[in-house]
Amino acid sequence: MRRAEIDGGFTGMFDAVLFDRDNTLIREVPRISDPDLVVPMPGVRAALDLLRESGLRIGVVSHQSAVGFGFVTRAQAEAVDARIEQLLGPFDTWQTCWHTPADGCACRKPAPGLITAAARDLGISPHRCVMVGDLGTDLQAAAAAGATGLLVPTGQTCVAEAAAAPHRAPSLLAAAEWILARRQLLRPGPAGADEPGNVLAVRAGSAGDVLLTGPALRALAARAHSVSLLTGPPGAPAGRLLPGVTRVLEWGIPWAERDPAPVDRSAVDGLIDTVRCWQIDEAVIFTSSAQSPLPTALLLRLAGVGRISAICDDYPGALLDVRHRAPDDLPEAHRALSLAAAAGYPLPGGDDGRLRTVLPASGTRTGRVVVHPGASASARGLPRKVAVEIVRELARSGREVLVTGGPAETELTAEVAGDVAGDLGGQTDLATLGRLLAGSACLVVGNTGPAQLAAAVGTPVVSMFAPTVPFARWGPHGVPHVRLGDPDAPCRDTRALTCAQPGHPCLGEIDPAEVVAAVELLARRSP
């Protein structure tokens, strides 16, 4: 595929920005019915114009329960909206919930109905939208729709909502600049050879790490003659599920794996010989922020690889031809995509940037819920007692529940399943688990690989997320989800593998009824 074909298909991370109305676009006036009382928030017109000029579509999603309660007529509310457009310019879609909280509708935030309706009206997927608001319900609705939430705090924003926000901006103008900067990251950089070649992608880490690199590997495959993947034993099964990957070279990279084996000279020599034998023309090294690409780059130079790209903050000398930078809060899938684009491999037009596997398409989803209590790092798994209670509460709600886990977790899954759920502990490899998730309504899981596998097959996730790593980077990517747990617990950003806090407080105090409510929220259809 020629470079000109690739350039024409540029799409950013986002296609549309959706705004809450009151206290985001205009100053809140309780039960506002008079258009003359409309006062725009500071900087809002400049922010909107900046987004419009960039080609982004913009919309409003708002609930106006004063109409449902009878304090304001719908005609009065629509006159207020008309005044907003007069002051702030046109919007591409308006989605309003007129119900009261007691109505139990599917559109009132934190339900995702307004966001999914706005995306449908704009002809795009919700995961291509940013939802900007000042309250936790705005961001919860965004997550439940699979969109990105961006908090612009005001005097109405509580401390807990700010702590839980995956992304924050101090003002609307800063929010617009944040959005445009991330779109810019996916613009293509200069390509290497004019003719397609053999590209080696490198991604050490877990199955979840490799799955998150999937969209970037598709971007490489759209132009390259072949794409090979170098990864360690934990990530190899995921690599074999990714579309666009021609072959997987399994090698425990000693300077990048969590539990590395000693550096073995003969193994290093063998890897160099393999890379030479495969006639690799170019390499793209995908890493997490805690990993340096430079030792791998040195090894690949010794193997004769001519062009190497990586994200790197250290001085690379002559080891890197493309040295890319990425913001710390960029989701891992977008981080990988931005590197691929910088290396001259943007996603082709028509690719939506979602995670994806080569598993067969699932049939009709059932109402079944899968609970995966374990994790390779115990600090990120579900506390055993909490998992047991969650499964029982889900079963009492009428849900079919299956409990999954690896071969070393059979004792855990048996206890969690008890006599109310199916126990599949030790019976599902990655591909089998993926097929199971593809036919299920929801996955309840900690921040571990199966969450990304669920995203890869399009299954919503109730994410019991220990804040040892940033949720903005490692949360479920591109699918509807609900985050539960204390986002500001003492373990926040420690990268701890084992919880040092008695009772595992970030997840240990979750009410099982919250999980049932989250499952029902994700399983509901939007209006």
Automatic annotation (TrEMBL):
Molecular-function GO terms, alphabetical: glycosyltransferase activity; metal ion binding; phosphatase activity
Keywords assigned by UniProt, alphabetized: Carbohydrate metabolism, Cytoplasm, Hydrolase, Metal-binding
One GO cellular component, as annotated: cytoplasm
Compartments (UniProt record): Cytoplasm
Pfam families per the UniProt record, alphabetical: Glyco_transf_9, Hydrolase_like
SUPFAM superfamilies cross-referenced by the UniProt entry: HAD-like (SSF56784), UDP-Glycosyltransferase/glycogen phosphorylase (SSF53756)
Domain of life according to the entry: Bacteria
Key word Nucleotide-binding present: no
Main location: cytoplasm
Any one GO BP annotation for this protein: carbohydrate metabolic process
Gene3D superfamilies from the UniProt entry: Glycogen Phosphorylase B, HAD superfamily/HAD-like
NCBIfam families to which the protein is assigned, alphabetical: HAD-SF-IIIA (TIGR01662), Histidinol-ppas (TIGR01656)
UniProt similarity note: Belongs to the GmhB family.
Protein name: D,D-heptose 1,7-bisphosphate phosphatase
Lineage: Bacteria, Bacillati, Actinomycetota, Actinomycetes, Micromonosporales
